[in-house]
Write a structure and sequence with these properties.
Number of strands: 17
Enzyme class: transferase
CATH class: Alpha Beta
Pfam family, one: Ketoacyl-synt_C
GO molecular function: 3-oxoacyl-[acyl-carrier-protein] synthase activity
Number of domains: 1
CATH superfamily: Thiolase/Chalcone synthase
CATH topology: Peroxisomal Thiolase, Chain A, domain 1
Distance between the termini: 32 Å
Helix content: 25-40%
Family: Belongs to the thiolase-like superfamily. Beta-ketoacyl-ACP synthases family.
Organism: Lupinus angustifolius
Length: 483
């Protein structure tokens, strides 16, 4: 029988009508009692799934990351996704792009490659754009990893999805706009709108697995993945669901997206001939971020629910902090107060002390002040030093930016990097910052991003994400015992 949840009680639909009539029959002059107290519930990670420029799958990506591999390569004409345009227009567009590097998901049928025939090209996938396909692939791996495929109606109703994205399918918009220029609007696909809507990533995952709990999609630029995970945590804590499939996805490597970021002078332009050196967080040679694509999805679960079914537990989500810079559309305040607020809220919620944080996966995108950007690497580093002063300057705190290896995955970045933080706890390895050869002058011997992957005990890890509009999010994960 279908059940409704009110506080800690389960009510069948038939009983709920009686309940409604009972509570609504009180006298109009009688004040309402306060709402039921909501007790926060513990939330753990029981499944992981990834599609990244380092490979398709968690094991492939993590192995390549730790070994110092790089997923950035030079752009080619086909990467612009301009098949609806004539060759001359394609070549002209390519020539005008000041940045010609990107972190692109490897495709093919080999292990560790994204198989487009499965996720994108079949006749059943006409309503699925690439960013949706990445989310479906990552969610499938995460659910298999968690071994959670609910079949009972009650379990389906208690399992939800929270997967966001940054921009949707800009290439579909470009192709469809071309039909207007050619006066061929009658050829517009009836699937145009469903292919570009951000929430359709969550929608398709929900439909594929019959998940009838919360169906949610955050859109907060490059903080999207972190906010989607954090919001899902809250849904479990407040009793809206027992299990949430949560993360972020993005596929913005196309002519218009790259051109837009080029015009805003956000992308790296100095390393077109040496693409694997282009993404260099915290390095004095950084000159802009490298646009990337992919998806990261986690299965989040109420702790007792996970324990009762014998699920593997990677880590516990201990804190979720949010803040707004209230300062500028792209530039954070120089004191990093927005980042400090987000990290402070996450730690305060966790009940832990800043000195107990062992590793931070920084948002640092390889951008510097003087360019329009998502956030300055130096400002985030200053915020980390301010927030974690003693452990930071004594080298007790390890931190790095993994964007040197995977580029900036925009709406997927926060989710992929949250998974990196979870894996750091599981494996006891803090991943390196690639291409950090000449660190920013603000660093010293005691306060320095990792330049090589480091084996170390990691019980608590944080992941930072910041986005356009001054939106900030910090996720805090910890190891968990069996209690």
């Amino acid at each position: 029988m279908s059940m409704l949840f009110y506080g800690s009680r389960r009510l069948s639909i038939s009983r709920s009508f009686y309940f409604y009539r009972t509570i609504s029959s009180s006298s109009p002059s009688t004040p309402f009692p306060p709402p039921p107290t909501v007790s926060s519930r513990r939330v753990v990670v029981t499944g992981l799934g990834m599609v990244t420029p380092l490979g398709c799958g968690v094991d492939k990506t993590w192995k390549n990351l730790i070994e110092g591999k790089c997923g950035v390569r030079g752009l080619c004409l086909e990467d612009l996704k301009m098949s609806a345009f004539d060759k001359e227009t394609q070549l002209s567009t390519f020539d005008q792009l000041s940045s010609k590097v990107a972190a692109i998901v490897p495709t093919g049928t080999n292990p560790g490659e994204f198989n487009q025939d499965i996720w994108l090209n079949s006749k059943d996938n006409r309503s699925i754009a690439r960013f949706i396909a990445y989310a479906l692939c990552a969610a499938d791996e995460a659910l298999k990893d968690s071994n959670w495929f609910p079949t009972e109606q009650e379990d389906k109703e208690r399992t939800g999805v929270s997967i966001g994205g940054g921009t949707g399918s800009i290439s579909d918009i470009l192709d469809s706009a071309q039909l207007i220029c050619e006066k061929r609007l009658r050829r517009l696909s009836p699937f145009f709108i469903p292919r570009i809507l951000i929430n359709m990533a969550s929608g398709h995952v929900s439909m594929k697995y019959g998940l009838q709990g919360p169906n949610h999609a955050a859109v907060t630029a490059c903080a999207t993945g972190a906010h989607s995970i954090g919001d899902a945590v809250r849904m479990i804590q407040f009793g809206d669901a027992d299990v949430m499939v949560a993360g972020g996805t993005e596929s913005s490597i196309d002519a218009l997206s790259i051109a837009g970021f080029c015009r805003s002078r956000a992308l790296s332009t100095k390393y077109n001939s040496t693409p694997q050196e282009a993404s260099r967080p915290f390095d004095t040679g950084r000159d802009g971020f490298v646009i990337g694509e992919g998806s990261g999805v986690l299965v989040l679960e109420e702790f007792e629910h996970a324990k009762n079914r014998g699920a593997k537990v990677y880590a516990e989500v201990r804190g979720y902090g949010m803040s707004g810079d209230a300062y500028h559309i792209t530039q954070p305040p120089s004191d990093g107060r927005g980042a400090i607020l987000a990290m402070t809220h996450a730690i305060r919620q966790s009940g832990l002390h800043p000195s107990e944080v062992d590793y931070i996966n920084a948002h640092a995108t390889s951008t510097s002040l003087g360019k329009i950007h998502f956030t300055g690497d130096a400002i985030e580093a200053t915020a980390i030093k301010t927030m974690f002063f003693d452990p930071a300057i004594s080298s007790a705190l390890a931190f790095s930016s993994t964007k040197g290896a995977v580029g900036h995955l925009l709406g997927a970045a926060g989710a992929v990097e949250a998974i990196f933080a979870v894996l750091a706890i599981q494996h006891g390895i803090a991943p390196l910052t690639l291409n950090l050869t000449k660190p920013d002058p603000l660093f010293s011997d005691g306060f320095m991003p990792l330049t090589a992957s480091k084996e170390m005990p990691i019980r608590v890890a944080m992941s930072n994400s910041f986005g356009f509009g001054g939106t900030n999010a910090s996720l805090l994960f910890s190891s968990t015992g069996s209690d």
